Amino acid sequence: MILEVLEFGFMQRALIAGISVAITSSVIGLFLVLRRNSLFGDALSHAAFGGIAIGLATNIYPLWTGLTLSILGAVGITKLRQYAKIPADATVAILLSSGLALGILLISLSGGFTLDLFSFLFGSIMLVSVEDTLAILAMTGIILSIIILLYRQLMYITFDEEQARVSGLPISKLNYLFIILASVAVIVSMRLVGILLVSSLLVIPNVTALLFNKGFKKTALISVSLSIFSVVIGIAISYAANLAPAGTIVLVSTAVFLTVLAARHYSKKKQIVKKLEEARS
Amino acid sequence: MNQSRVALAAIATLIPLAMITTVYTGRPALQDREEQEKITVVASFYPLYEFASRVVGDRAEVSSLVPAGVEPHDWEPTAEDVSRGRAADVLVINGAGFERWADDMQAKVVANTSEGIEFNYREENEAGDDEQGHEDAGGGGVNPHIWLDPMLAKHQIDKIRDVMASSDPANTDYYNQNADRFTAELDSLDAFIRSELADCNKSDFIAFHDAFTHFSERYGLRQHSIHGVSPEGEILPQTIQQIIELANGFGINIIYSEDLIDSRLADTIANEIPNGKVLVLSPIEGIGNEEQAAGIRYIDKMKQNIANLKEGLECR
Amino acid sequence: MQIVEIDRLSYAYSGNLVLDNISFTIDEGDILGIIGPNGAGKTTLFSCMLGLLDDYTGTIKILGEDIKKKNNKVFKSIGYIQQKKTIEQNFPATVEEIVSLGITITDKTSKEKIALALETVGLLAQKDRRVGELSGGQQQRVLIAKAMVNNPKLLILDEPVTGIDLEMQNKFYSLLEKLNQENKITIIWASHDLDAVNRFATSVACINRSMFFHGKTYEFFENPDLLKAYSESSMQAHMHLHNHTHRG
Ligand SMILES: [Zn+2]
User: Fold this and answer.
1) Are residues B79 and B179 in the same domain?
2) Cβ of C93 and A162 within 8 Å?
3) C111 and C23 fall within a common domain
4) Between chain A and chain B, how many beta carbons pairs sit less than 8 Å apart?
5) Which of these, A79, B124, B222, B298, has the minimum number of CB atoms within 10 Å of its CB?
6) Residue B140 domain flag
7) Is the residue at B165 inside a domain?
8) If you ran DSSP here, which 8-state letter would residue B98 be given?
9) How far apart are CA B223 and CA B132, in angstroms?
10) Based on the domain organization, do B184 and B54 belong to the same domain?
C-alpha cells in the first residue's frame, strides 16, 4: 500500500519537500540548540505569522511578508540583545508574543480570513506544488552550501563567540547571515508543518543527536539522518493510518528521542553494573 | 507672526464652540429621526443578506454580520457583532445548524429561514465520502446549504417575508410584492438550470465541500466532495488518494474549487488525474467586495456555477 | 625585534581608571610574566591588545602595526587563551575539531598542522575523543593546541592554569617553554603564581592599575624591597576582596 501510493505525484513531492526541510531545519537547528536559543525558531515562526497576516490583509504574497517580518524581528531582537543587554530568552518571548499578537489583531480587524490561515498554522505538506518543491529544493541547496562553506566559522562562534572575535572572524556579519538563513529555513518548513510545529523540527532531532555524545560533524549527520527518518516514517504512518501528517512527523521524532534516551539510560546502567561486578571479583 | 497666532487662537476657540452648537442643534433632529427610524435587519452571511435586502427594499436597513468575502463556516462573532445582533429589530439566519452562535445572540426577533423545511432525503443522499466523516454542524445531521437549491431559497424568502410582515405590519403589502418578485426570479432560475442540465453525459461531480447536497437532490445529480460539511480542516493523505480514485472511477477530469478558499487542494488533485482541471463551483457563502461592487449577485453566481458545472458534467 | 609596543595606554570604565598610563615593550622570543593583584587590570590590558576593547587612549602596536587599524593579519598571528575557560561538557566536538577552529585558511596541510599541534601538547592519541570528556588540564592543552595551530607569533595566556592540579601545571609550563624555544613563540602570560613566573618567565611586568615594575625576571625576584612592596599591595587587594565578600 505504501509503495503504490508513491506513484502519486503529491506523495513524491511531499517526500522530496519533507526531506529537504528535514535537512535544512536540523542543520540550522543544531546551531540554535547549541547556542541555547532553541526557542528562536518559534519566535521566528510567530513573527512570520504576524507577517503572513499582513500579507493576507494587504493582498501581498503572504510568504514574502512573513519572511520580511521574521528577518526584521530577528535582527531587531539581536540588536536589542546587544544594546539593551536583555537576556536572550526574554527577547525571544518579546518577538514570539508580539508576532502572534500582530497576527491575531489583524485577523480580528479583517473579520477573520480563516481560509488560508489553517494551512499556515498546521502546514500542508500534501499540497506542495511542483513549483513549491523546486523552490524548496533551491532554498535547501543555497542554505546548505552557505552552511558548509562557513561551517567552521559558525561552529567557532557557537563554541565561543569571544574567542572567535579575537581570532578575527566578522562576528556580527556572520550572526546576521545566520539569522537570515534561519528565517528562510523557518518560512520554508512552516509551509510544510505549520507555524506551531516548526520549532520541533529544529530542536528535537538535534537534542536526540546530542545524546550520542559525538563530535560536531557526526552530531550534525546523526541529526540530519534522524530528521529525514522522522519525516519519511511520519509521512508513511500518516498515510497508512490516515493521520494528520505534520503532527505524525513530530510525534515520530519525539518517539525517536525517547527511544534513544531510554537506550542510553539502559546502557549506562549496564556499564555501572559491569564495573561493580568487576570491582567485586 | 502675530497674525498666525491670532488665527490659531481663533481656531482653538471656534472648535469647541462649533462642537457645543452641534450638540444643541443636533438634539431635536436626532429625536425626530428616532420617531421615523427604519427597522434594522441583521443577516448572518451573504445569501441571507441579499435575500433580506430584496424583501425589505428601502423600508429597512440591512447589514451582514459576516463581512464580505469571509468564509462563514467557522466565523465567530466579536463582542461588537453580538451587540449589533441584539440591537437589531430582526436577525435573519440560515439555521439548520449553520450559525452555532445564534442562540447566544439573544436577538429580539429571529427569522430562521430553514424552519419548516423537511430534511427527509438525508439517508439516500450520496454526497461526500464516507471516510471523510460527516461531522454534523450541530443541526441534528442536516446539511445547512439550503440556499443553493432555488426552491429552498424560495422557502427562505417566504420566511423572511413573514417575519418582516409581523414585525412591521404597516409595510406588509410592500414586502409581499418584493418577495413575489424575487420568487419569480428564482422560478426562472430553476427553469434555466433544468434546461441547461437537461442533456448531460455525467451526473457525478466532485465539489470542494459538502455544499451541493440539496442542489444535487433537486436536479438529479450526485455530489461527491473533498471536504465534509465545512470547507476547512487538515487534509489527510488518504482523502486525496480516495478523491483521485473516485475521479478516475467516474472518468471525471474536473475538480471544483471555491471562490473563498485556497485552491491548492483542488490543484493537487487535478494534477493527479488525466486532463485534470480546476473550475470554481461557488457555494455562495460570501461575495467579495469587488464582485459586489461589480453588481454580481446570487443569481449571477448560480449561473456561473451552472456554466462550470455544464463543462464538468459534459452537457450540451 | 619588538613584537609588542605599548605606549601610554590608559583605559577607563564608567569613570574609573582601570589602566593608567602603561608603557612597555616585548622582544621577540620573550616570555613575559604579568603579575598583579586581582582587579589590577590584567584582563583589561589583554582585551585592549586583542581588539576587544578599543576605547582606550595611547597606542598599542603588535608586529609593528597599530591594532586600531584592525588588520586581521595581526590578530591571526595572536593565539589567546582565556582565564578559567571551561568547555561546555556537552558541546559536541572532538579534540581535533576544536583544534581545527584555530586554522584560518583550510587546505591540504590542515590535517598535518592539527596533528602536529596535538602532538606538541601530547594529545594526539585523544584526537577523536569528545572534548567534554577530557580533564580540565587536558582541555587547557587542547585550547593551547588550538591557539598554536596557526603558527602564532604571539601567545597571550590569561591565568591559564586556574583550577588545574599541580602536576598538570608543571607539564603545562614545560610545554610553554618548549613552544617558546622550539617554535620561537613570544608569550605573554598573566599569573598569580610568583614561583612559576620566577622559574619560567624571562621578564616580568607587575601591574596594579599602573606599571609597578617592568624588567628582567631576576631583577624583580632578587630585589627584596620590590618583593615586599608587591606582596603588601597584593595583600591589600586581597583584604579588600575578603571584606567585600563578607559584607555581601
Ligand atoms: Zn458550506
Assistant:
1) yes
2) no
3) no
4) 80
5) B124
6) no
7) yes
8) S
9) 14
10) yes
* Number of independent structural domains in chain C: 2
- Does one domain contain both B180 and B206? no
- Structural domains of chain A, with CATH: 2-199 (1.10.3470.10)
Print the domain residue range for B9. Answer: 2-26
Q: Which residues of B touch A11 (CB under 8 A)?
A: 237
Kindly state whether residue C82 falls inside one of the protein's structural domains.
Answer: no
User: Cβ–Cβ contacts within 10 Å for residue C137, how many?
Assistant: 17
State whether C143 and C232 are in the same domain.
no
Q: Are residues B151 and B225 in the same domain?
A: no
Question: Which residue in C78, C85, C92 is closest to A214 by CB distance?
Answer: C92
pTM for the model: 0.80
Note whether residue B133 is domain-resident.
no
CA of B229 to the centre of ligand 1 (A): 6
Q: Residues A41, A182: contact at Cβ < 8 Å?
A: yes
- C66 plus C175 within the same structural domain: yes
Cell of A223: 541529526
Inter-chain touch A11–B237, beta carbons under 8 Å: yes
In a shared domain, residues C25 and C114: no
Pair (C53, C143) in one structural domain: no
d(CA A212, nearest CA chain C) in Å: 9
Distance of alpha carbon C96 from the chain centroid: 22
CATH code of residue C10? 3.40.50.300
Instruction: With respect to residue C118, please indicate whether it lies within any of the assigned structural domains.
Output: yes
Is B83 an interface residue toward A (CB < 8 Å)? no
> B226 with B269: CB under 8 angstroms?
yes
C141: containing domain: 92-150
The per-residue pLDDT string of chain A (281 residues; one tens digit each, 9 = 90 and over) reads 556 777 888 899 999 999 999 999 999 999 999 988 888 888 888 888 888 888 877 878 777 888 899 899 888 888 887 787 777 778 888 888 888 888 878 876 765 555 566 777 888 888 888 888 998 999 999 999 999 999 999 999 999 888 888 888 888 899 899 989 999 999 888 888 888 788 899 999 999 999 999 999 999 999 999 999 999 999 999 988 888 888 999 999 999 999 999 999 888 888 888 888 887 76
Quote the CA–CA distance of A218 and A270 in Å, as a whole number: 25
Residue type, A212: F
Closest partner residue to A114 (CB to CB) among B71, B235, B237 is B71
Strands B204-207 and B110-112: unpaired
Q: Mark whether C and B touch (3+ CB pairs within 8 Å).
A: no
Please check whether residues B159 and B276 belong to one and the same domain: no
Domain count along chain B: 3
**B236, B242, B285: best mutation site toward chain A, by most A Cβ within 10 Å?**
B236
> Is B93 in the same domain as B8?
no
Q: Which of B67, B244, B262 faces A8 most closely, judged by CB atoms?
A: B244
SS (H, E, C) C91-150: CCCEHHHHHHCCCCCCCCCHHHHHHHHHHHCCCHHHCCCEHHHCCHHHHHHHHHHHHHCC
Contact (CB<8Å) A152/C106: yes
B264 contact A CB<8A: yes
Does residue B126 form part of some domain? no
Question: Which residues make Cβ contacts (< 8 Å) with residue A22, sequence separation at least 6?
Answer: A201, A205, A224, A227, A228, A230, A231
- Whether C208 and C240 map to the same domain: the answer is yes
This complex has an ipTM of: 0.82
Sole residue written with cell 602596536? C61
C-chain residues near A163 (CB < 8 A): 80, 82, 101
Q: Do A166 and C104 touch (CB under 8 A)?
A: no
The nearest alpha carbon in chain A to B69 belongs to: A113
Residues 162-201 of A with CB under 8 A from C: 162-168
Is some CB atom of chain A closer than 8 A to the CB atom of C51? Answer: yes
What residues in A contact B237, CB-CB < 8 Å? 5, 11, 14, 126, 235, 238-239, 242, 245
Same domain, residue pair B11 and B45: no
